[in-house]
Amino acid sequence: MGVSGYLNFGSKTKGNILNNFPSGDWVANVARFCFGMNMLTTFPLELFVIREVVKDLIIIYKKRQHHDPSYTIDQLSTMQHVVITTVLSVIPMTVALFTCNLGAVLELAGATSASTIAYILPPLCYIKMTWRTKTMVQRVLPFACVAFGFMVMFLSSAQTIISALKNTDDGHCVE
After folding, report:
1. Which of 19, 66, 70, 92 makes the best surface tag, with the fewest CB within 10 Å?
2. CA end-to-end span of the chain, whole Å?
3. Which pLDDT tens digits describe the chain residue by residue (175 residues)?
4. Residues 6 or more apart from 73 whose CB is under 8 A from it?
5. What is the DSSP string of 47-110?
6. CB count, 10 Å around CB of 108?
């Protein structure tokens, strides 16, 4: 898609290639509709996975709160299910309603997840595994890596947010 978009639109190719086509183009509108239906059908699967993760987090919290390592639940209560599903549905919908620049959303996701995966979690795991065997001086480099990761995360996220607020990425929306 990227190559065909670049061959057709050149350097004016937008992050979402469908945004390069005018809003009155019926073929592009059919493609937009199909893309929307694809998102509509995959969204419940994504909600299922994250709802299970939230359930696991609730179990971990309850185990620690009650000091009961055998605590478990098979499924969420109806109220928990409704609240979690509603929150997880409303947050992405709100983001989608207030932005037409998919690039900015992906930049934010990349800024947080990439720096977390590359710079923050590995040294934290190392610190956790070697806490008793390493001196504070030996832990300086892993802590420095964690600090660097947070700095990269915050700076790149701030840059993306400032760029989006200043609207320096003009032309990402359908005209």
Report:
1. 70
2. 20
3. 778 777 888 888 777 778 888 888 899 899 989 988 888 888 888 889 999 999 888 888 888 888 777 777 778 889 989 999 999 888 888 877 777 776 777 788 888 999 999 999 999 999 999 888 888 888 899 999 999 999 999 999 998 888 877 765 555 565 5
4. 55, 58, 59, 62
5. HHHHHHHHHHHHHHHHHHHHT-TT---SS--HHHHHHHHHHHHHHHHHHHHH---HHHHHHHHH
6. 16
Domain ranges of the chain: 1-98, 101-175
Residue 28 has φ and ψ, to the nearest 5°, of -65, -35
Please answer whether residues 40 and 126 qualify as being in contact, where contact means their C-beta atoms are separated by less than 8 angstroms.
no
Q: What angle do CA 56, 94, 168 make, to 5 degrees?
A: 120
What amino acid occupies position 92?
A: P
Please answer whether residues 103 and 172 qualify as being in contact, where contact means their C-beta atoms are separated by less than 8 angstroms.
yes
